[in-house]
Structures are given as C-alpha cells and as structure tokens.
Design goal:
Length: about 230
C-alpha cells in the first residue's frame, strides 16, 4: 500500500502538471501542444504526465474541468458578496489565477464541444451574479436576463481579445501573455462609467429601437395571418 506521503506527492505533481498545462495551452493553443513540451514546462517526465492524465485529451479535459469549476466558485462568491466586481475582477485580484483568462480565450477561439460548454458556463454564472445583484438592489432589472448576461460575457472576453493591441504584454512574460492589471487600470473606469451611468443622456435611441422592433413584429404577424387566410 502506498504511503500518504507518496499520495500527497502525486497530488502535488498532478496539480503542477495541470497548472503548467493551463499556462501552455493559453499561450500556444491546444492543437499544437505536446505532452513532452508541457512536461518540460512542469519539470516532470512525459511518462508522469501520462500516468496522471492518460493522454493529451485527458489532460485537456482535466484543465477544462478545473478552470470552469473554479470560475463557478468565484462567481458564487461574487454573487454572495455583491461587491464592485464579478468573476473576472476576482481573477484580477488573485494574480496566480491570471492564466485562466488566456486559457478561456484559447478554448473559445478554437471551438468545439468544450468551448460550447465553457461558454454556457460563463453565461450561466454571469446571469446568476446579475440576478443576485438585481435582488440585492445593486443592479437594475432587464427584460431579458439571459441576453444581458451573454452581452456582458462577450464584452468582457472581447476586451481581453483586443487589449493586446493597445497594451503590451508584461515585460517578463511570454508575448501572448495578458497584463490583466494593466487592462483593468486602463479600462476599469470607462467600463464602470458605462455600466453605472450609461452612454446616452436620453432614451431616444432605446425608444426608437423598441418602436422599430414592435412595428417589425406587427408586420410579420400581419403577413403570416394574410398568408394563412383562404
């Protein structure tokens, strides 16, 4: 029977491999990654990676489960605290979690079943946070909570996707690394202004859009009824 010490060492090695893989996948992508390269980053043998995860797909699935579960926990904490920030803000204030953002971006950019599941998790978690914020009097209600959550997730992920063109990577990092602190410093105030006080001073554009949508829906209904008549 293996000792508790050996079992603990295995857990530590497994976590180190997983964490190194999250950084590697975020920087280089999933398709071109090799177990040998990830093992070198983690300073372990390729055989140990196979021992713990079986294959590159097994390692990828473990990383994906870890990232999505951790983001769910962070979102739950944000919903409970209802502070001035949510999941990505919590990640920013926890430096060792910074590699999660490039990993998420790679997952969504490369597509596939895991990307769809991750997208759904991000939106569902954000929707839960927003609904709790509405119930707590922190956020305004909306006509479509799901659509608002989707829009906010797209907005935030888009910020990380395009920030690299405005903000250089950290001087001591990889060229693909994101300087999360610099991104927050640069865009934190404009984002909070936009979400707090809005952009337009009147509801003119909103009213016009709603009227246009209503007229369009009425036109579609009228056309359908006309075609269904004998």
């Amino acid at each position: 029977m293996r000792s508790a010490r050996v079992a603990q060492d295995d857990l530590t090695a497994r976590a180190r491999i997983r964490d190194s893989a999250i950084v590697y996948f975020g920087r280089h992508g999933f398709r071109t990654a090799t177990l040998r390269a990830i093992a070198a980053d983690a300073e372990v043998s390729p055989a140990l990676v196979i021992h713990h995860f079986g294959s590159k797909d097994g390692l990828r699935e473990s990383c994906d489960a870890y990232v999505t579960d951790l983001m769910e926990v962070l979102t739950r904490e944000a919903a409970q605290n209802l502070g001035a920030g949510d999941t990505l803000d919590l990640i920013n204030r926890t430096p060792h979690l910074a590699p999660l953002v490039p990993y998420v971006m790679r997952t969504l950019n490369e597509g596939g079943d895991l990307a769809r599941r991750l997208w759904d998790r991000l939106v569902t978690d954000t929707q839960g946070y927003l609904e709790a914020a509405v119930a707590g009097g922190v956020a305004n209600p909306t006509e479509d909570e799901r659509a608002r959550a989707e829009l906010i997730v797209m907005y935030k992920l888009g910020t990380y996707l395009f920030a690299r063109y405005a903000i250089p990577p950290p001087p001591d990092g990889h060229p693909t690394d994101l300087d999360i602190a610099a991104i927050t410093t640069r865009y934190g105030v404009p984002a909070l202004e936009l979400f707090t006080t809005g952009l337009y001073r009147t509801s003119e554009y909103l009213d016009a859009f709603r009227a246009q949508q209503s007229a369009r829906a009425h036109e579609i209904t009228h056309t359908h009824e006309s075609r269904s008549q004998p």
